[in-house]
Amino acid sequence: MVISERLGVFINPKTGKSKQLPLDEKTLLKNFETKKTTLRINLPAPPQNKYYKYILKVHASDIDHLYHVNNSVWMRYCMDAAAEAVQNGFFKCFKRDLFSYPVKKLDCIFNSEALAGDELTVLCWQEPSLKLEDTIFFHVAKGSKDCMSCSIQFYMQHVLSKL
Predict the structure, then answer these.
(1) Cα–Cα nearest to 120, from 62, 67, 161
(2) How much is the pTM?
(3) E-assigned strands of 20-113?
């Protein structure tokens, strides 16, 4: 079973900024259930000096039709950072390739865009106080500007394919 909750935003393609949904679009969407809401995700702040740091440059192939990093690419950045951290022994509870652990839950919040050529820093860590050995937290920044944060919870048991 999959549960997905999203907050939709109408984007002006010329400015790349959000704007009010035009009346004709509202009419087209009148049969869809809509709620005026703001999604809130409570993610812990990175602990001082207890995180793995991964630096990357945004490539042109990471950019979508609005000329900023596509949402799926943000997840690749986080997974690449965590996979490198696992490979380097940073996360002790992950004993094998991170990509062999199925994702159980993913929560993310996007705060700011990134563009081709930007240098991003991905911090990843676990939060011992929460006793969540199966969860990795992420924070991505462009300089001092927060871009996105997320948490990824994994199934820890080793599942072999039935194929």
Answers:
(1) 62
(2) 0.77
(3) 52-57, 103-110
Q: Nearest CA to 13 among 61, 71, 60, 65?
A: 65
Contact 139, 94 (CB under 8 A): no
Q: Give the pair of three-digit tokens for residue 17.
A: 């900024």
Question: Measuring CA to CA, which residue among 81, 84, 77 is closest to residue 147?
Answer: 77
Domain 41-154 of CATH type 3.10.129.10: yes
Which region, left, alpha or beta, applies to residue 49 given φ > 0 means left and ψ of -120 to 50 means alpha?
Answer: left
What backbone torsions phi and psi does residue 75 show, to the nearest 5 degrees? -65, -40
Q: What tens digit of pLDDT does each residue of 86-120 get?
A: 999 999 899 889 999 999 999 998 889 999 999 99
80: its two tokens: 């690449």
Looking at residue 120, its pLDDT comes to 98
48: Cβ contacts below 8 Å, ≥ 6 apart: none
What are the backbone dihedrals phi and psi of residue 87, each rounded to the nearest 5 degrees, phi first? -60, -35
pLDDT of residue 149: 94
Which regions of the chain does DSSP assign to beta strands (E)?
52-57, 103-110, 119-125, 135-142, 145-154
